[in-house]
Write a structure and sequence with these properties.
By secondary structure, this protein is mostly beta strands. The chain is 11% helix and 63% strand. The protein has a 17-stranded mixed beta sheet that branches. The longest helix is centred in the N-terminal third of the chain and has 12 residues.
């Protein structure tokens, strides 16, 4: 640790909060717009533990009746109103259930009740994830909004690239239950069903979590199969099948994946 007037520098930091170990450095620069400066590297962390550690900032418990009756937003505490931080975060392995995310780099900009991870460069399993994540902390529970791209997602012997936004509210399992995403998807070499193999595919998508699983709505669908181009729309059915209704040169076709229960969708 070094002191230079009102400035403080902490280097070669090795620490642990809860079950999360990390290394890095920290600087306090009182004259800066964001006085807290830091670089943090976390080798591995569980998402539930990370959320527990951040709970005082993310969720403000106002008592049983206020939560149950949803009696307005909880006030932002003074310590959060004055928080101004600017740093970088790297996480070698962030685990969400069976999914593992590697955050190669992200800049954390924290201004009072808004926390933003800008320029996120990450990998979800083998897929590349880039974009910006904004967390609004003005409510009783956080609101998340991600805008960016998810590329090279494996799907039916082919690959999909997504570009768009995702919104979610709450904490824990509430995040997945409230998630809603929309944007555009590009696909290549998709073996959609035994009757349909698409050389290319593009569509606008909207997906939300509902009882029984994810529900997808596809519009402005355009696929190429052989020498033909088909246009149309699609949607997830109650049994989990994704059904496409397409048209080419006056010819209508309907393609469907197998029911989700078969494990092959």
């Amino acid at each position: 640790m070094s002191l230079n007037g009102k400035r403080v520098t902490v280097s070669r930091l090795r620490a642990r909060v809860g079950a999360i170990a990390f290394t890095g450095d920290y600087r306090w620069e009182p004259a800066a717009m964001r006085p807290h400066k830091f670089h943090v590297t976390i080798p591995e962390a569980d998402a539930a533990e990370l959320q527990r550690v951040l709970a005082p900032s993310l969720v403000r418990d106002r008592g049983f009746f206020a939560r149950t009756l949803r009696l307005g937003d909880a006030p932002v505490p003074d310590w959060l109103k004055t928080r101004r931080a600017d740093g970088t975060v790297t996480i070698g392995a962030l685990t969400f259930g069976e999914t593992q995310v590697r955050i190669d780099s992200a800049r954390l900009l924290w201004d009072a009740a808004e926390m933003r991870l800008a320029g996120v460069s990450a990998h979800v399993n083998e897929s590349a994830l880039t974009g910006d994540l904004t967390v609004d902390l003005t409510g009783r529970a956080p609101h998340y909004r991600f805008e960016g791209k998810l590329d090279n997602v494996a799907y039916k012997d082919g690959r999909l690239d997504f570009e768009g936004s995702l919104d979610a509210d709450g904490a824990g399992v509430d995040i997945l239950a409230s998630a809603h995403a929309e944007g555009r998807v590009h696909g290549r070499s998709i073996a959609f069903s035994s009757e349909a193999e698409f050389r290319t595919a593009v569509a606008c998508f909207e997906v939300s979590e509902q009882a029984g699983g994810e529900r997808w709505k596809l519009s402005s669908v355009e696929v190429t199969q052989g020498a033909d181009t088909y246009t149309g729309s699609g949607a997830t059915q109650s049994d989990g099948r994704l059904v496409l209704d397409l048209l080419s040169r006056g010819r209508q076709v309907r393609y469907s994946t197998l029911p989700a229960a078969s494990g092959t969708q």
